[in-house]
Automatic annotation (TrEMBL):
<comment type="pathway">
    <text>Energy metabolism; oxidative phosphorylation.</text>
</comment>
<dbReference type="InterPro" id="IPR004202">
    <property type="entry name" value="COX7C/Cox8"/>
</dbReference>
<keyword id="KW-0496">Mitochondrion</keyword>
<dbReference type="GO" id="GO:0045277">
    <property type="term" value="C:respiratory chain complex IV"/>
</dbReference>
<keyword id="KW-0812">Transmembrane</keyword>
<dbReference type="InterPro" id="IPR036636">
    <property type="entry name" value="COX7C/Cox8_sf"/>
</dbReference>
<feature type="transmembrane region" description="Helical">
    <location>
        <begin position="214"/>
        <end position="235"/>
    </location>
</feature>
<dbReference type="GO" id="GO:0006123">
    <property type="term" value="P:mitochondrial electron transport, cytochrome c to oxygen"/>
</dbReference>
<feature type="domain" description="NADPH-dependent FMN reductase-like">
    <location>
        <begin position="1"/>
        <end position="142"/>
    </location>
</feature>
<dbReference type="InterPro" id="IPR029039">
    <property type="entry name" value="Flavoprotein-like_sf"/>
</dbReference>
<keyword id="KW-0472">Membrane</keyword>
<dbReference type="InterPro" id="IPR005025">
    <property type="entry name" value="FMN_Rdtase-like_dom"/>
</dbReference>
<protein>
    <recommendedName>
        <fullName>Cytochrome c oxidase subunit 8, mitochondrial</fullName>
    </recommendedName>
</protein>
<keyword id="KW-0999">Mitochondrion inner membrane</keyword>
<dbReference type="InterPro" id="IPR050712">
    <property type="entry name" value="NAD(P)H-dep_reductase"/>
</dbReference>
<keyword id="KW-0809">Transit peptide</keyword>
<keyword id="KW-1133">Transmembrane helix</keyword>
C-alpha cells in the first residue's frame, strides 16, 4: 500500500519535516515493507485557488494541478501531518486539498497534529475537511504536544527519538486503523457529489443519469404555483357542473 505523508507546514523555520522524518522512520522500523513517501507542500507549490473549474468536475487546466492530481491519485493511504496555527490548520494545506476532489475520495486518512497542546483543534477542523472530500478519516488522531520538546538554536528538535517515543503506539494504532479501512479509489464517483446538490450551479443527476439544471426545477415550481389556482378553480367548476 502506497502511503503518502503530507507535511502541512510550509513556513520558513518549520519543524514539520523533522517530525515527518521521525514518523516515516518509525513506520518503516515497525514494518519494513511499508512504502511510505513524504510529500512536502513547499515542493508542491500550488498558487491559491487558481483553477477556473470546480475541482469536483476533474477538469484541471493548470499543469501544476494536473501533476498534483497525478501524484495524489497514486496514494492509497494518507497521513496528514499538521501544525496548529491560531486554532486551525495551515492555509497551504487547505489549498492543496481544495485543488483536487476525486483523487482524495474513498481513501483512508490519518491525522497527526502538533502544537503546544497537541493541536486538537487543527486536527478536528482538518478531519471535517477531509470528510468533505470523502476521505475515510479515522477516530483516533495523534496529537503531539510541543511543550515537551526542546528546539535548539538551529531549529532542530533535541533528542527527537526520546521526545516523541511516547507517541509511537498511538501512531501505529492510528495507522493500523486507517490501513484496515476498506480502500477503494472508486468508492466515491464524481457524480455522487453532484447528487447532493452541493453547488447550486451544477446540474443534479436523476435516476436515468440525465442531468437536470436547477433553473428548470426553479421555473417548474414557479409555473406550478402560478397555474395551481386556475387548475383548482377549473376542477371545482367541473364538479359543480357549471362547465
Ligand atoms: C501562525 C502561527 C500560529 C500558531 N498558533 C498556535 C496555536 O494556536 N496553538 C499552539 O499551540 N501553537 C501555535 N503556534 C505554534 C506552532 O504550533 C509551532 O510554532 C509549530 O512549530 C508550528 O509548526 P511548524 O514549525 O511545522 O510550522 C502557532 C505558530 C504559528 C506560526
Amino acid at each position: 500500500m502506497k502511503i503518502y505523508l503530507i507535511i502541512g507546514s510550509v513556513r520558513l523555520g518549520r519543524i514539520g519535516p523533522q517530525i515527518a522524518e521521525w514518523i516515516k522512520k518509525e513506520i518503516q522500523a515497525n514494518d519494513p515493507s511499508s512504502d511510505i513517501e513524504l510529500i512536502d507542500l513547499r515542493e508542491w507549490y500550488l498558487p491559491m485557488d487558481d483553477e477556473p473549474n470546480l475541482p469536483a468536475s476533474g477538469h484541471y487546466e493548470k499543469e501544476h494541478t494536473k501533476a498534483w492530481a497525478r501524484k495524489i491519485s497514486q496514494g492509497e493511504m494518507f497521513i496528514f501531518l499538521t501544525p496548529q496555527y491560531n486554532g486551525g490548520y495551515p492555509a497551504a494545506l487547505k489549498n492543496a486539498i481544495d485543488h483536487l476532489y476525486a483523487e482524495w475520495s474513498g481513501k483512508p486518512a490519518c491525522i497527526v497534529s502538533y502544537a503546544y497542546r497537541g493541536g486538537g483543534r487543527a486536527a478536528a477542523q482538518l478531519k471535517q475537511i477531509l470528510t468533505g472530500v470523502r476521505m475515510l478519516t479515522q477516530e483516533n488522531a495523534v496529537e503531539i504536544s510541543l511543550s515537551q520538546l526542546v528546539v535548539d538554536d538551529s531549529g532542530c528538535i533535541t533528542d527527537i527519538e526520546n521526545a516523541l517515543s511516547q507517541y509511537k503506539q498511538a501512531m501505529f494504532r492510528a495507522g493500523r486503523a486507517s490501513g484496515n479501512r476498506q480502500f477503494s479509489s472508486n468508492a466515491v464517483r464524481r457524480s455522487d457529489h453532484y447528487e447532493e446538490g452541493v453547488y447550486s450551479n451544477i446540474p443534479f443527476k436523476i435516476h436515468n443519469r440525465k442531468y437536470v439544471p436547477y433553473w428548470v426545477l426553479h421555473f417548474g415550481f414557479l409555473g406550478l404555483g402560478f397555474f395551481a389556482p386556475f387548475l383548482v378553480a377549473y376542477y371545482q367548476m367541473k364538479r359543480s357542473g357549471s362547465i
